[in-house]
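User: Fold both of these, please.

Assistant: Here is the first one.
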Amino acid sequence: MEETISLKELFGVIRKRMGLIVLITLAAVLVSALISYFVLTPVYQASTQLLVNQKESKQTVYNPNEIQTNLQLVNTYNEIIKSPVILDKVREELDLSISTGVLTSKITVSNANESQVLNLSVQDTDPYQAADIANKTAEVFQRDIKSIMNVDNVTILSKATVGDKVSPIKPKPLLNIAIALVIGLMAGVGLAFLFEYLDNTIKNEQDIETLLDLPVLGSIANIEEPKESKGKEKSVRGESLGA
């Protein structure tokens, strides 16, 4: 019985402060939508793939030791691709006005476990520039790795392209709005219970019993006079004043 009353009180507080909860939730959704659509700059991504493997030879069977060597080189290549020795040349050949550090932050290199394929991704506010940076980085790396590591085992599998209908990878307005909706709802409910907790006014008999720890023996109801009797009283007063 005690648990049922507590649940009723909780729902009563939510119902009482529903206006506040709705207002805070709508405000959070509105702010999130405005920031997502009008403040944040769209960011696009372009990707290319590189294969770490020796050039074709007369051998018809792969050498397991050679494959294992290529796999070990993948981690090293991840660092070399993003090093200044590669990116400085990318900046010069594309005539980029950004620093090498900024260019490094735009590039991500990854590969699946036990895979000889490197995925080179570039994020930029311009989708065409993102594709140019990805392709030029792959091109410079394939060309210069021969002199850096004294090996010729990198092949470009696919080049970055820009489609007709390219969409940014971030921000994601719908996701941001959904998150803002949940956060606004939680904040509204939290504030509703906070205001209810800080409200010390006595509203009913139950509050008196809780505060004084005494039973309520009776209460005086507020009885309003009928409208007809009020009208008659006014007319009588008017006649008496006229007399």
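And the second sequence with its predicted structure:
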Amino acid sequence: MNWDQIEGRWTEMKGKARASWGELTDDELDQIGGKRDQLVGKLQQKYGLAKEEAERKADKWADEQ
């Protein structure tokens, strides 16, 4: 699924994101709003990932949806 689709369906995608990244709070998921750059930033912050690794994980997650 591409990021435009994820952003458009974010309400239903939040549960899947929460299942993948349990450290993200509901408020943080609301702030992300399906935006790739926001998700990447939160993954970096919460999980201590480098930007490239966070981008890889976010894109892999999107591809699996």
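The mean pLDDT is 95.
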